[in-house]
Amino acid sequence: MSELTKLTLAGARDALKKGDVTSLELTEACLGAIEGAGALNAFVHQTPDLARDRANAADERLKAGDAPKMCGLPIGIKDLFCTEGVPSQAASRILEGFRPEYESTVSAQLRDAGAVMLGKLNMDEFAMGSSNETSVYGNAVNPWRRGNDETQLTPGGSSGGSASAVAADLCLAATGTDTGGSIRQPAAFTGITGIKPTYGRCSRWGIVAFASSLDQAGPMTKDVRDAAIMLEAMCGHDPKDSTSAELAVPDFEAMLTGDIRGKVIGIPREYRMEGMPEEIEALWQKGTEMLKDAGAEIRDISLPHTKYALPAYYVIAPAEASSNLARYDGVRYGRRAKLSQGDGVVEMYEKTRAEGFGHEVQRRVMVGTYVLSAGFYDAYYNRARKVRTLIKRDFEQAFDAGVDAILTPATPSAAFGLGEMAEADPVQMYLNDVFTVTVNLAGLPGISVPTGLDRQGLPLGLQLIGRPWEEGDLLNCAYSLERAAGFVEKPAKWW
Amino acid sequence: MLDLTYDSPKPKVIAGAKHDWELVIGMEVHAQISSRAKLFSGASTRFGAEPNSNVSFVDAAMPGMLPVINEYCVEQAVRTGLGLKAQINLWSAFDRKNYFYPDQPAGYQISQLYHPLVGEGEILVDMEPGIARKVRIERIHVEQDAGKSIHDMDPAMSFVDLNRAGVALMEIVSRPDIRGPEEAAAYITKLRQILRYLGTCDGNMQNGNLRADVNVSVCRPGAYEKYMETQDFAHLGTRCEIKNMNSMRFIQLAIDHEAKRQIAILEGGGTVEQETRLYDPDKNETRSMRSKEEAHDYRYFPDPDLLPLEIEQGWVDDIRAALPELPDEKKARFVKDFGLSEYDASVLTAEHENAAYFEQVAAGNDGKLAANWVINELFGRLKKDDRDITDSPIAPENLGQIVGLIKSEEISGKIAKDVFEIAYTSGREPREIVETEGMKQVTDTGAIEAAVDEVIAANPAQVEKAKANPKLAGWFVGQVMKATGGKANPKAVNEIVQAKLGL
After folding, report:
1. Which CATH number fits domain A3-262+414-421+437-485: 3.90.930.1, 3.60.130.10, 3.90.1300.10, 3.30.1490.100?
2. Model pTM?
3. Chain B residues touching residue A98 (CB < 8 angstroms)
4. What is the ipTM of this complex?
């Protein structure tokens, strides 16, 4: 049974097609794996009945020879996605008991492509965090450990539950969302693949908003091929999201040739950070060599405004969040605080939001409110917007000069221990996003590919950044890197 | 373009205890855009629906919901801008105005602060024939309405109705060019008239689809002229904003009261604080709602859920080409083409339905006579029945027939009123009424002569008196008219009576 859960999407798809296995068998195997993985705290709401129903329906369609592309494949959905009739609370207390009457566009497309939802996955509250420690459900746990050291490690965040579940073979793949690195950082921490597509590729409709101009959904998978398969099912134009692009969706999988001869790979010198661990530096170098060996041209490039990206991000994202989260007021849905005699509407807001939001969310709402305030708007928000324009231009200039993709480390370190950052300055935690936020600010596609292990046996990933709307080429580049790196390690099961 | 010349009215002067003061008024009018669907959600805008029945997931600000612009609402706002001779901005953008209130589910209102859809325009506000005030429009932006909080249904609880939440509004912002309470009311009247002509707002103030925030300040005579020269607000007094007015009468009362309040403060040596005030019609006074210090910090920023609103010049041109004739042009044309007085033209063009009715009556007829009949007979009769022109029981063609029958002297003005009454109540055709009922005016001099002879023969004493006092000839005319059932042409009767009496 457990072998079934180790299948990739592509492997399972082919096995289903051949009739070697049924969707119900795959689904039961995953449900069993989830059952045995409580220690990982990856799945926070399980939907076994729904899963079995969908698996049975998928088996019918497979039998009838009318199977859509992800027919019968069991996956997990991040709790940020609204799923009809199923708890969807963005890992926040304030959405306690909320069961939407609608299905997000992305999860609806996956459903329509035949995928089987197993349940909802843990995450940082409202996707704000880099360690999954801000979740109301408690943190998810990384299936990887430092050798024999039993210290529990973070799976990263905010899509920590998704990363943990895929890395531990609880599901074949999962959805994630990425506002500043929330797909790519946890993918790197858990040795899996995660792609954030170009802003506007996936509909944001029905996904609880964190920072609207940065949020994008994307797949978190066991390999690049699976990322191509699942991304194709997730993206496409949605008239319900004004920022969704009216572009045709290519057959991404068909673009995976592994041939990157003649492609120009940029190595941005500004990503060589002071105090960067040697191992990361070495990995980056190794990745560069691999792409070169595959026939790509390596070029040093400059993205001069990189150092302003993190501060700009931590102005823009909280500003948008402070406004997006204003709707959680206890009036219409979710949790409403118990009120005392004489309390009015202001007390209802204050008490509801004080007990409904965790500390990190409150911090960002306050930061965001501050930077939008009269008298500070120009100094913070407007300046951050200008920086954003400059960062975008840096990338445009590189691409205009002929660069096809840019290779960087995905994270400044391997997964760290849960609680290790508890006493640290919040900015220390924010530094996790240093290599990833630029991509969100510029709206570009970025993919994290597992490329090696560190000295302690933890996975490390590299990031490839592509041209806007050219996820196909980016995936192919990542595919080439993946093949060269030959990363096949799996965490030893301890849970 | 036809234009009627006009002079500007004198500003209203209020005599203070120490000296004279003038008023300076600017208005922000919130006009509900006529559209069956809301601005960003597609939900219905039907008025009077069950509470919370016209509410989509977007209107209720459910998690993950996103706004999508209703293109028809944009078209309506562009149409309005063109009707106010305003600049249309091909690139505009939506901003969020953040504040907490239970009838504002998202915690922000989507509006346009930084880049409005419509820029500068103007409205000519008619005061009386030949007198009008040109009021400059600063901008029109498109925004969502809020829902409604209901505090008086339960002693302990408040209720929220979101039917109106998300309905499209245009905020039409004027410059401070309005100089008195009457002008303020006339401004609203004219704006409403134009919006109704354009079909972009129903203008129903009772239903709240036209509401005004009124900015009032006072200054010494001469200061306003300095402001107009320099556009420097420093020449004007500190303004107070009176929020959410939806009655012409109360707008005037509130302005008057507010001006006097400010004058009393200034003459007492105090300073007017910039603040938002509410008018209480029961007490006829304005009360402070919040001071400048308590003013909300709305933390406006561009709405990241919406792309900038980019429209094509060609589309704007198409809308412009399809604009209806507007009140000023229509009025000028009525004066010119039908020879109407400006007053009558104003009355007839006040509502475009009236103007359209009149034009049908006037078609092929004497314009002035048609105007008289529409204004005096028809409007009076409709008012008596509390009916609207759109459900007038008499069709414009039929009233046109009556006017034609009068002009061709087939019936007298007096008989015409009877014909009108029959046509109005029965719906019958005037020509047929006149024929069937034998109401045709007698212009046959032979018949009239016979009737006159008869009256003269029967009243020899009166004949003598009339010969001595020619003014008594009228008595004979009356007798003849009576004898002919009012059908004789009075002019002809008069002439024949005079001749027969040898006067």
Report:
1. 3.90.1300.10
2. 0.92
3. 63
4. 0.96
